[in-house]
Every structure is written in structure tokens, then in C-alpha cells.
């Protein structure tokens, strides 16, 4: 028995698209694509974990549906979000006769989605792009919003584009093979949406923490759909990160990024950094009198229930982290913008709180 | 005494921009930029020919105006329109602290413009971009329309984007240092605009061939402005090459590209290939009964007056060129679309004329 599927529409004028969320949806990937685009040739990009687990089935099914398919597999892991890996993909695509009528399909986590999206955005000045995200993080976050790209040495996502997919198909069944840690890392972004935009959703997460931990299908569809919807609302209001609205998605991320950088990208998953970062941001908001301590402790309690870390890893020095933050390239005129909660369900942007307060928030 | 400058507006909704055309305009590049964008940091990209001739003056002037400037110089020539060269530029830009507030300024020909535009489009998901084209070809063609990108081995412009500049400043004085051949190559595209869109303009070129050959400033401003205007009209109607309208700009190019490829990109400049290609296309139109021979001979006469080649280079075999055309990646289902004149000032698209007729048109 499958839970009923659901659709979230991302409204972006002529670039609007559907996100289908349900069980077993990958079995219908071929018609999902051909319903939306007369395609004959699909470049399927995946990584070497997801290939054997899920992508090969998708490829078989596309072939059965009469499509010409080239599967291109990159190494699993962040190191594949790389300029040279993209260049290899472009060349392989050229050799395989990829042209403007070809479509690119990403089957994998955020790494595959960001890389494949970038390759799609730039080959022949832009190919039609579909996403089948396979990690919770990519299902609730990276597959929505059109940010694609690769890293430069020392600078994440420094080369890329805004390139909206033509459609996103989220099959929650693929989550069954995901490690516990990767699953929980995705949950951090889910909690984030509750804090920044939707108190009811936050309360729903509190009430259903057990079902979430058990990866209950109905609950999964519900929280993924709501997360996509909330992110879509922000993206619709600020597609190209111009008005500032999109910045609210960075709640917890200023701290999180500093932690990821300080620990050398690896020991701490992105979602884990965000989890700790949200707690720090909330404490900072407390110290500024924006919220009371109960608002922070609700977040800590929920994150802990979901198995996420809420305090700095051993050996991390708050003062050093703060100087890392202020050295970041994005800092303009010495000002950092923090996203801080004013209650559960609402955040605001604050420019440059006192560095000492930021240090304190991490203790 | 300077001739009065003129402005062509490219109307593309929120991406519209001005093209300033006149004498000595590079001396005002700093205010041209800062009038349009609050900028502090300029990444100036040029090549090693243009650097000493013109770009260093521009850089000095930007510095005098209080801007922070990094000059990045690539080797002159098509080989710099390359994935690895772009990657080096991205890394250098990162090291120099380039951020979203930085702007990129291209000072050079089409190679520099396409490369710098691509780097601008992709760094930090898109920086503001200005062009100061310094060849006639880039002034009348490549700097208008937003196509930017680099080559893959064996495939020109295969990686790129549509990325409109924020403004284009065309200083005709820089043309004084351009070789005769490069100057004439640019004229081929000017003649093209007359044939495809504007009989009066074509007649004006016929009447002013001597002034054009003498690079008379007033005439230059006039023909560059009209060329930009005509290209802008096409681009406004079909910004992303979707409706087919933009295809008319390829008049002479199907033949021209085959010639460039057959001669190994080098012996024949792009504009020279286009010049020969227009004559072939016009003969093909004749053989199909679209035009009389007088329409072709007017083009031949004008092109010859402007010092451009109008027949195949020695040793080129029409039959081989035709098979080259049909092997091109862009050919779909064995069909090639030719842009053919129906009179001076008008072209139409024709799918796949008989291959034998195409062969004959090149004899
Ligand atoms: N574009 C955006 O807006 C955006 C937003 C957030 C994050 N991101 C990016 O997303 C990336 C992180 O995404 P991620 O966490 O999905 O990382 P990931 O793609 O590296 O996936 C994590 C691991 O899970 C494996 N995996 C994927 N699906 C699986 C499955 N169904 N079963 C078993 N294993 C599976 C992968 O092979 C990988 O080893 C980062 O590069 C980050 O910058 C982008
Ligand atoms: N983006 C587009 O829409 C578009 C349209 C047409 C052509 N193009 C591209 O443009 C490129 C060709 O442009 P191009 O002909 O300007 O080539 P180019 O940039 O290589 O310039 C030709 C030569 O002239 C030199 N030069 C430039 N300005 C000079 C000056 N003022 N004085 C003396 N020397 C000077 C250059 O160093 C180079 O050696 C090709 O790569 C082609 O694909 C792009
Ligand atoms: Zn995140
Ligand atoms: Zn051309």
C-alpha cells in the first residue's frame, strides 16, 4: 500500500514547475519527463553510491520507455562539485551527441543535483533539467530554488547559476537506503523551515517526532511537501537573491558554515552544522532581548529528539569561530547579517551584533 | 574634433541596456560604469594585444576615478575561449576578493568579450558585466545579444550562457590599431545586416564604401550604430534563441562555419568565411528561384569593394564541405536550416535544400 502522492507547484512565471512527492515515483520517471518535454535523449547524472541503489533502475526504465540514455557517474561526495568534474561531464556529453533537445536528469543528493544542474545550465547555453533528489536534504532544500553550481578551492558554490528545473520527482522510498546521519542532517533543514516561517509546522514536527524518526511514509510525504512549499514561497518572492527575502533561509547557517569550515568540511555534516547554528542564533537573539529562553529550548528539545547535535563539537573555540566568520568573503564593510528568530515561525535580519555577544552565544 | 556620440538602447525588460558609440569614449569608462552601478571593484579582462594598446589606459583611468582594479590578461586568440582559461580566471578573481558587488569589464575583441562574459555570468552566480569591444566584429556583433561562453574541443561556444551586459561602450578610436584583415572581417557582418534586414542600410554601405574603407569616423559611428540597432531588434524579439527569429543572424554562417572547420580555424577569419558564405547562400537562393542573379551580384560587388573574399579558397571541395555541414551536431533528423535571401533586406529560413544544389552554390 502506497501513501497518496502530492504535488507542490513552484510559481516562477514561465519558469514554474511541479514537484511530485510520493512513494514509488521513480518507476514513473520516464513519463514524468516526457509529459513535460518532448525528449529523446536523457543524460542521467548520478554518483557511485546512488547508481547501484537507485539510478540504474531509473535508467533501465527510461530505456524501456524508448529514450536514449547516457548514464554518467561521478564519485560520491562533495569533491565532485568541482570545476574539472563539470568539464569532464561537458566533454562526455559532447561525445555522446548531446544537443539542445537533450535533457539532463540528476539522480542523487545535493552534490549530484548542484553539479548536474550546473552542467545542464551551461551546456549549449542551457538544457532542460529534471531532478530526482535522493537524500532528505536534497528533497527538502537543494532541489528547490534553482541554485546550481560547483566549488572553487576554499569557496563553496562560487561558480554557478540560477537554473530552475523543469520538474522534480521526489520518491520517498529511496530514503530507506540513506544512512541515519544523512537522514538526520536533512531534518535540520526541515526544523529550520518551522522556525523561520511556520509555527504550526514546527508544532507538527514536535508532535510527530517519533513518526519522523521511524521514517513513516505518510509523515515523510507531509514534511517534505510542506518544506518544499515553504522554500518555494521564499524563492518565488526572491528568485535571484536580490531583495534579501531569500536570506531568511540562512537561519543557523552563518554559525553552521563557520563550524563546517573550522572542522575542515567532513567531520560535521552540513545539516549538523545548521542544527548547532540554529541554537547559537537563537541564543544570540535571546541575548539581544528578541525572544525568551523558552523559544530556544523548544528548538533544542526538538533537534535533540531528532538526534541532531545542539552544541559545539569538543575543541571548538567560539572566539576563533567568530574571527572566521568576520574573515568570510561575503562580509561587507565588516558587517555580518544574522538571521535571528523573533518567535517560533518568524525571523528577521540583523546587521552585525556585537562580536562579544556572538562569542557568548556559542558557549 | 570628435564626431558626436550616439546611443543604441537594447530593450530587454529589466535587462535592457545602453550601447554608447563614439570617439574617445574609453576615457570616460569609469563614469560609464559608475553611472550604472555602484561599483568599487572592477575585474578588467583583456588580451595581451589589447592590454598595451588600450586596456592599460582604461585601467589607469578607473584607478584615478577611485576604483579598485584587477587587470587579468589572457593570450590573444581563439584558444583563450577555453574551459581551463575560465577556471583560472575564476580562481584569480577569488584570490583578489571578487564578490557580488564587483563588476567585470571586458576590453578586447569577441574572444575577450565571450570569455569575460562567461566568467561574469558564472562567478558567484552572476556579476554585473560591462563590455568595451575593441574589434569591429565585436562592436557590431558579439557585444550585442548576451551570448557568452567558451569552446569545447571541436565544438565552438558549447559551454556558456545568455548573460546581458549592463552597458557597452564602443570607442571607435581603438579601431585605428586594428589590422586591415580584422577590420574587413568585421565589415562582413555589417553587410550581413543590410542583406537580412535593411535594404536602405545596404544601399548606404554601397554609397559609402570608400569612407568605410578609410575608416572615416562619422561613417564608422553610423554603421556601427545601425548594426547594433538591427541586431538588438532581433535579440529583443528572441532573446534566448527560442522562437527561431534569431536564426536570421546566421545568414552566410552555415557555409562559413563549414569553411572555417574545413580550413582548421585559422587561415580564414570568421568574417571572411561569412563573406564567402553569404555569396554561396545567395547563389543557392538563386538556384531555388527565390531571387535573380542581380541580388547576388550586388552583394559580391559590395563585399569585393570592402576587400572581402567572395569565392572558395583554393583547394576546397564543395562536395566535402557539404558532407561536413550535414555531419554537424546541430543537424536534426538530417535537416539543415538555411537562411536565404528573398531580396536585399529580407531573408527566410529553408529546411534542407537538395544537397546537390548546395554543392553547386559553392562552385
Ligand atoms: N542548491 C541548493 O540550494 C543547496 C541547498 C542546500 C545544500 N546544497 C548542497 O547540497 C550538498 C549536500 O547534499 P547532500 O547532503 O544530499 O549530499 P550528497 O549528495 O553528498 O549525499 C550524501 C551521501 O548520501 C549518498 N546518497 C544519496 N542518496 C542516497 C540514498 N537514497 N541512499 C543511500 N545513500 C544515498 C550520497 O552518495 C552521499 O554519499 C552540498 O554540496 C550543499 O552545498 C545545495
Ligand atoms: N557572442 C556572440 O554573439 C558572438 C558573435 C560573433 C562572434 N563571436 C565570437 O567572437 C570571436 C571573434 O571575435 P574577434 O574577431 O573580435 O576576435 P579576437 O577577439 O580574437 O580579436 C581579433 C584580434 O584582434 C586583436 N585586437 C583586438 N582589438 C584590437 C585593437 N583595437 N587593435 C589591435 N588589435 C586588436 C586581438 O588581440 C586579436 O588578436 C569568436 O570567438 C566568435 O565566436 C561571438
Ligand atoms: Zn542548508
Ligand atoms: Zn558571425
List its salient traits.
45% helix, 14 helices, 2 domains, 363 residues, nucleotide-binding (chains A, B), alpha/beta, 3-dehydroquinate synthase (chains A, B), Rossmann fold, binds nicotinamide-adenine-dinucleotide, 11 strands, metal-binding (chains A, B), 19% strand, seven-stranded mixed β-sheet, cytoplasm (chains A, B)
Q: What does this entry look like structurally?
A:
The structure is a homodimer of 363-residue chains. The first copy, chain A, is α/β, with parallel strands linked by helices and 363 residues long. Chain A folds into two domains: 6-177, Rossmann fold, CATH 3.40.50; 181-207 and 243-360, Up-down Bundle (Dehydroquinate synthase-like, alpha domain), CATH 1.20.1090.10. The first copy, chain A, has a seven-stranded mixed sheet with strand order 1-2-9-6-5-3-4, sandwiched between helices. In chain A, strands 7-8 form a two-stranded antiparallel ribbon. A two-stranded antiparallel sheet of chain A has the order 10-11. In chain A, helix 10 (253-262) packs across helix 11, helix 10 packs across helix 13 (318-327) and helix 11 (270-287) crosses helix 14 (355-361). In chain A, strand 10 (337-343) and strand 11 (346-351) form a beta hairpin. In chain A, 45% of the residues lie in helices and 19% in strands. Chain A binds chain B through residues 83-84, 87, 90-91, 94, 97, 99, 101, 121-126, 147, 149, 152-155, 157-162, 240-241, 329-330, 332, and chain B through 83-84, 87, 90-91, 94, 97, 99-101, 121-126, 147, 149, 152-155, 157-162, 240-241, 329-330, 332. The structure holds nicotinamide-adenine-dinucleotide (2 copies) and zinc ion (ZN) (2 copies). One nicotinamide-adenine-dinucleotide (NAD) binds at residues 47, 49-50, 53-54, 76-78, 81, 108-112, 114, 134-135, 137-138, 141-142, 145, 147, 156-157, 174, 177-178, 182, 270 of chain B. Chains A, B: Its EC number is 4.2.3.4.
